[in-house]
Amino acid sequence: MARLTKPDIRPQNPNFSSGPCAKRPGFTLEALSGAMLGRSHRAEEPKARLAEVIERSRAILGMPADWKLGIVPASDTGAVEMAMWSLLGERPVDVLAHESFSEGWATDIVKQLKLDGARVLGAEYGALPDAAAVDPAHDVVLAWNGTTSGVRFADGDFIADNRAGLVICDATSAAFAMDLPWAKLDVVTWSWQKVLGGEAAHGMLALSPRAVARLLSYKPPRPLPKIFRLTSGGKLIDGIFVGETINTPSMLCVEDALDGLRWAEGIGGLQALIARSEANLACIAEWVAASGWACFLAQDPATRSSTSICLTVTAPWFAALDSATKAKAAKRLAALLEAEGVAYDIASYRDAPPGLRIWGGATVETADIAALLPWLDWAEAEVAGEFATKQAAE
Questions:
Q1: Percentages helix, strand, coil for the chain, rounded to the nearest 5?
Q2: In this predicted model, what pLDDT tens digit does every residue of 152-208 receive, in sequence order?
Q3: What distance in Å separates the CA atoms of residue 212 and residue 230, rounded to the nearest whole number?
Q4: Are residues 99 and 352 in contact, defined by beta-carbon separation less than 8 angstroms?
Q5: Nearest alpha carbon to residue 63 among 204, 256, 163, 255
Q6: Which of these, 225, 262, 343, 387, is most buried using a 10 Å CB contact count?
Q7: 65 by DSSP, 3-state: which?
Q8: CATH 2.60.40.10 correct for 29-266
Q9: How much is the pLDDT for 82?
Q10: In Å, what is the CA distance from 82 to each residue of 52, 238, 295, 364?
Q11: Residue 392 DSSP class
Q12: Please, which residues have CB within 8 angstroms of residue 41's CB and are 6 or more apart in sequence?
């Protein structure tokens, strides 16, 4: 098989990881020089910084004024677990599981919480579950954007306006890059290390009035660790939602989160962030249409993620391989790109079909995506040649 000449242009920023994600354009460590290091997070000024993260996030996302938003431990995972352990059990629950993380929520609900009446509505990677099967009398747990599958919900029309249940939405790779239908949701979670390129370990938990009402009226029939508790003495722990965190936050990460939020405001807010991410998806879509060897894992264009952009290899040489060898070939492709310093951490997630996963969130420049794509063609030709040579030798 013919090899290709290495492209002349390289991405200026080769960081295409799906988390932690690329820092915002122009970022330097100097941006963190004002961090409240060595200060108690309970002191007036550091607490004000935490509250600022909450308020700037609310404003950019256009969150309804009657929602609560707090900073919680353990990233998006911690936020989702807090919601599930605190809220679920009053009524049956439907879990929409179509990639690794939503499958993880399903496992927790069925095997850890052991909730009666739990239904797992599943789908293969690249597809969405049958949302029409969701019962409006049930609680619902879903991931708005499948970080490991590259599939997102196009809208919230499948969620009933007059639903009796709550909708818990893991939005970690959707928040700040997609329009979230707040009226259709009751709990929304995300982490700092995704669309705005923040540092890890901190989660955000947003609660609708309906979710707050459930917290106050329902006592779960299980013990809750301190790190999960959102109420005390039958009342909401309001401090969580004004910057009084449950555990000690990193003030360096807080400063970094504020830097990302200020950058987002400076470029035009949510719509500008969405436009940047959609431009990255469009750039890759144009290339896929002409590539001859790659396609989107998400077959329906309406459900293709603009952040976690997942690709599969469709070339005949790849299709002829067995499953284990396909996985090795895909890893080799990603390793070649990393060795050249043009793309770091773009192998598909370990549970996903073999391929590539390119982060297209708002901090990624479309020019860097465009510079990367010829390198994908080069790497595919290299790996195809390597496997052809090996096959001939055997």
A1: 40, 15, 45
A2: 999 999 999 999 999 999 999 999 999 999 999 999 999 999 999 999 999 999 999
A3: 9
A4: yes
A5: 204
A6: 343
A7: coil
A8: no
A9: 98
A10: 22, 15, 37, 31
A11: H
A12: 47, 50, 245, 248, 249, 251
Distance CA(157)–CA(248), nearest Å, equals 39
3-state secondary structure 216-277: HHCCCCCCCCHHHCCEECCEECHHHHHCCCCCCCCHHHHHHHHHHHHHHHHHCCHHHHHHHH
Q: Annotate 194-209 with b (16+ C-beta within 10 A) or e (fewer).
A: bbbbbbbebbbbbbbe
Taking CA 345 as the corner, what is the angle to CA 291 and CA 390, rounded to the nearest 5 degrees? 60
- Tokens 């879509």 map to which residue? 285
Collapse the DSSP code of 296 into the 3-class scheme (helix H, G, I; strand E, B; otherwise coil) and give the result.
strand
For the record, the structure tokens of 211 come out as 């979710």
pLDDT class for 392, splitting at 50, 70, 90?
A: confident
Checking if the pLDDT of 39 tops 60, the result is yes
CATH label, 269-393, candidates 3.40.1190.20, 3.40.630.30, 3.30.1780.10, 3.90.1150.10: 3.90.1150.10
Type of residue at 118: A
Per DSSP, 351 falls in state T
Is residue 53 a contact partner of residue 36, using CB atoms and an 8 Å limit?
Answer: no
Task: Answer whether residue 1 shows pLDDT above 90.
Answer: no
Burial class (CB in 10 A: 0-12, 13-18, 19+), 48: exposed
Dihedral sign, Cα of residue 51, residue 56, residue 61, residue 65: positive
Query: Could you give the 3-state DSSP secondary structure of residue 200?
Result: coil
Question: Which residue carries 């256009």 as its tokens?
Answer: 62
Strands 235-236, 231-232: parallel, antiparallel or unpaired by DSSP? Answer: antiparallel
207-212 LR contacts (CB < 8 Å, sep 24+): 207/67, 207/68, 207/69, 208/64, 208/66, 208/67, 208/182, 209/66, 209/67, 210/166, 210/186, 211/83, 211/87, 211/166, 211/186, 211/187, 212/68, 212/236
Where, residue-wise, is CATH 3.40.640.10 in the chain?
29-266
Q: Identify whether 20 is preceded by a cis peptide bond (ω within 30 of 0).
A: yes
